[in-house]
Amino acid sequence: MTIQKLDLLYQGKAKAVYATTDPEQLWISYKDQATALNGKRKETIDGKGALNLHISQRLFQVLAEAAIPTHYVRTLDATSMLCQRAAMLPLEVVVRNFASGHFVSKFHVAPMQALEPAIHELYYKDDALDDPFINDDQVLTLQITDARTLTHMRQLSDRVNAVLRAYFENIAITLVDFKLEFGYLSDGTLVVADELSPDNMRLVDAATGDSLDKDVFRQETGDLVAIYREVAKRLDQIV
Questions:
Q1: What is the CA radius of gyration of the chain?
Q2: What is the DSSP letter of 90?
Q3: Rounded to two decimals, what is the model's pTM?
Q4: Integer CA distances (angstroms), 168 to 38, 58, 165, 214, 226, in order
Q5: Residues 62, 67, 71, 73, CA torsion sign
Q6: Among candidates 72, 80, 86, which has minimal Cα distance to 16?
Q7: How far, in whole angstroms, is CA 208 from its chain's centroid?
Q8: What confidence tier does 35 reach under pLDDT thresholds 50, 70, 90?
């Protein structure tokens, strides 16, 4: 059966989510929009959506090959993918392999200091609150989810980290940190959802230390499309 796009369900900063003729699947379109400061700064950048989709689809495939469950089904066109509908948890999991960004300023550590073991952080997804940091006890007390789910999210995050770090190392890229979001499918499976792109991870060139992610937009230090195109090019080198 041919999948058709129906009503718009959600309009995010970088993606739009639509219902489809299959109630268990969603049509997700990537937008040519870059944001910073939790959406306070916005800019339309031609070609960004297609590059984010291209990178995300490849990384979702990499996770699937490693038997890590995700919501990705298939790519529909240059800027859209089909995904399984998931009941999203209002939490972001950040995994840090090296010190960067706010972690450096908050703890006065050297940029790119190795963090061993990797650090896990939770953030509560609420734009009105600027997605505040939240700890396990707060999650449980506020009944956002249960202890079993928190443990499962951490286990999946560790598996994703191991797979992606090794994958990026093969193309001379260092995975500094990244953000994951999770949701439950209708059968109860917890899956990695949202996207996997330089929008939600920090990547640096292993040889030069140059940024290969959205930091070039945040800090206005480079051409975002050129940087994302370089990441996509390297990913395409591995079949």
A1: 17
A2: S
A3: 0.95
A4: 27, 12, 5, 17, 18
A5: positive
A6: 80
A7: 24
A8: confident
